[in-house]
Structures are given as structure tokens and as C-alpha cells.
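Appendix B: complex inputs.
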Amino acid sequence: MSVLVTGGTGTLGRDVVRLLPGSRVLTRSGDGVRGDLLTGAGLTEALTGVDTVVHCATTLGRRDVDATAKLIEAAKDNQHLVYISIVGVDRVPLPYYRAKLAAERLVEGSGLPYTILRATQFHQLIAKLFSAQRFLLFYPALRFQPVDTGTVAGRLAELAGGQARGRVPDLGGPTVWSARELAGQYLAATGRRAARVPVSLPGKTFAAYRSGHHLAPEHAEGTVEFADFLAGA
Ligand SMILES: NC(=O)c1ccc[n+]([C@@H]2O[C@H](COP(=O)([O-])OP(=O)(O)OC[C@H]3O[C@@H](n4cnc5c(N)ncnc54)[C@H](OP(=O)(O)O)[C@@H]3O)[C@@H](O)[C@H]2O)c1
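Resulting structure:
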């Protein structure tokens, strides 16, 4: 099986590539096959001879829709498209989530055999929430279920090796934590001291997060907790 990983130079994609030795990496400037999902440059060549595409690339914004459209346009009829999305893209009204949902819809309507996996927040994202702060540690008064990219990559690699399955069950990290607990774990791991300050925001997006629409407690998987990730496990 020949696999192309878009976003194979990214946080998740690197783990997917590690688990799928011999896979091709699509990149604009890193190590791999040159291609740009926004301009379409290089896509036909990158897709030649490929059986499965694991689509991990993201523009971190609304342009994910255009990027996914270009990928679909360049793909051949029988190429299996495996797409990574986010738990709650249909329920949390964040602009990025809306783009991810629109990209899911494009994949579903592409006519290509496809598999879509939604995952919860990666450990790296939670760490990023805290790492830029200094004397006070502000945290959203919400819960998270962070997951290790190795766990998500493992599932994607397994899905890439099988038949197209449409939308598959969501994938969440091992435990649902309050952000206050995660902030405490971050302080313990980094040896820092800071007062933890909860932040609540008005609006539908925060309310949707507060309702837990980004969580998948019934699909808690993997063993690498946030504290393990911070410890470099
Ligand atoms: N972060 C989370 O917590 C989380 C949770 C669930 C799902 N996800 C999803 O997981 C996926 C991977 O996220 P990530 O955090 O690993 O992303 P990331 O580290 O930001 O990596 C982005 C990747 O996209 C590629 N890329 C960006 N623009 C491109 C373009 N125009 N053409 C080709 N490649 C392009 C980059 O490749 P080059 O720079 O080498 O070109 C890079 O490899 C995303 O779809 C994201 O929505 C993320």
C-alpha cells in the first residue's frame, strides 16, 4: 500500500509518518514531496501511484476548506481519503470548527472512498494554553480530554491500512480533566509557581465547550496522560 500523508511535517503528521514507514510526505518546504494544497501545485505528482491519503494538513483556519477541495480535485477515483477532524465540530460554533465541518462535508461528498476520525485536543495544544503565561496562570473554566498524538496516529495508521469506513467513532484521551487540574499538572511538571485564575467568557462558543461538546468520554482511549506527555514519556 502506498500512502501520502498531507501535513506529514506537522505535530500529528510526524507520528503518522513514523507509524507508516515508506509513506510519502506532502510539504511546502520541508522534507518530502513538494506540494501546496492552497495553490494545487505539485498535487497531481504527489498523488501519482498513491492508494491512500491521510489528510493531516491544516491552515489552522478557514482555508482548510479550500485546501481539502484542492486535494479532492487532484485525487483519483479510487484513492482512499482518511481525514482527521475534531470532536464537536458540528456543535461548537468556532470558525475553525466550522471550516473543519465544511471540509468533512467535502470529503463525504467527494465520491472517493473515505474515512473520517474526530479526535479531542492534543496534549501540545493544552500545553500551549499555559506556556505563554508568566506570573498568573489563566485557564478557561472548562474540561478537556487531551489525547496523545501517538494514540491518534496509531488509529489513523490502522484506518489507512483498511477499507474506507465513513465516519468512525470519535477518539478521546484517557481522562476528562478540568483545565484547573491540567494547569496544576503543568505547574508541577515545569516546577513553576503561579496562581491559577479561572476565566469564563460569554457567548455560544464558550457555552458549547462548557457543555462538553468537544469531549468524548465514551471513547476514552490510550494511556498517555497530559502529565506523562509533559514528562516526556
Ligand atoms: N491540535 C489539536 O489539538 C487537534 C485536535 C484534533 C484534530 N486536530 C487536527 O489534526 C490535524 C493536524 O493538526 P496539527 O496540530 O498536527 O497541525 P500542525 O502541526 O499545525 O501542522 C500543519 C501541517 O499542515 C501543513 N500545511 C499547512 N498548509 C499547507 C498547504 N497550503 N499545503 C500543504 N501543506 C500544508 C504543514 O506542512 P508544511 O509547513 O511542511 O508545508 C504542516 O505539516 C489538523 O487537521 C487538525 O485540525 C488537531
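The radius of gyration is 18 Å.
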